[in-house]
């Protein structure tokens, strides 16, 4: 309720505001992803009862498509960022973060519900095209691993200055949801190929290291293994290869760190 009283445009709120320039940043990646993710997940966990949450989610998906999604010259679908100073004018920024590769799953979670049925075909086509772009972020690198971001919609990273991979899970996450909802084995194959690249390029003596530049085969490491590597990245990699997993999206909602939580209707009741 508090947030809805703040300035927004088509379901998107600025993650920060540069007071001197009077410009806000719109995105669904860094500093924003978990907020938008939980709109639909809380709605699902509570039995799809809160219409306010659904509307905020539905508006956000529409706002993202209107203001952040663009087609590159190569036909790939990118999710960028934007600058907004109020009113109707939005200035698009062509920078797609690895973080936004969660979006295909986020879209699918709402599309496969009664409320999402009217826009299901259109939005699943959008989800599919974004998932494919995330795959191309991996496949087109000599290491087979996707970068932290892609600038100027140039998938070969010629316009990108930060080309590291810090063990992020979002691509595998998005592919897992797409596999769960569509049954298309393609997503499982993408996950397997990505995992093989992780094994080839990231494994070190005592774990897995982040890679300084995914566009080079020189194996320059960042001496850091993030906790989400085990909690999320490897979990989604495993789940993609486990079609008989007991973690069913009919019964569970996975939080932003990939921990499965029962939907309230299936949760065990506390003893009286």
Q: How would you sum up the global shape? A: globular
Written as H for each helix and E for each strand, in order along the chain, the element string is EEHHEEEEEHHEHHEEEEHEE
Low-confidence stretches: none
How many β strands by DSSP? 14
The share of residues in helices is 25-40%
Helical segment tally?
A: 7
Main sheet: strands, sense, barrel: 4 strands, antiparallel
Class of secondary structure makeup: alpha+beta
Percent of residues in β-strands: 5-15%
Rg, rounded, reads 19 Å
Strand order of the largest sheet: 1-2-5-6
Mean pLDDT over the residues: 95
Ends distance: 33 Å
Polypeptide structure, described:
With 272 residues, this protein is α+β, with helices and mostly antiparallel strands. The protein has helices at residues 33-45, 51-67, 103-111, 120-139, 170-182, 185-201, 227-240, and strands at residues 17-18, 23-26, 69-71, 77-79, 81-84, 90-93, 95-97, 149-151, 203-204, 207-208, 210-211, 221-222, 252-254, 260-262. Strands 1-2-5-6 form a 4-stranded antiparallel beta sheet, with no helix packed on it. Strand 9 (203-204) and strand 10 (207-208) form a beta hairpin. Helix 3 runs antiparallel to helix 4 (120-139) and helix 5 (170-182) runs parallel beside helix 7 (227-240). The radius of gyration is 19 Å and the shape is globular. 39% of the residues are buried. The model has no long low-confidence stretch (mean pLDDT 95).
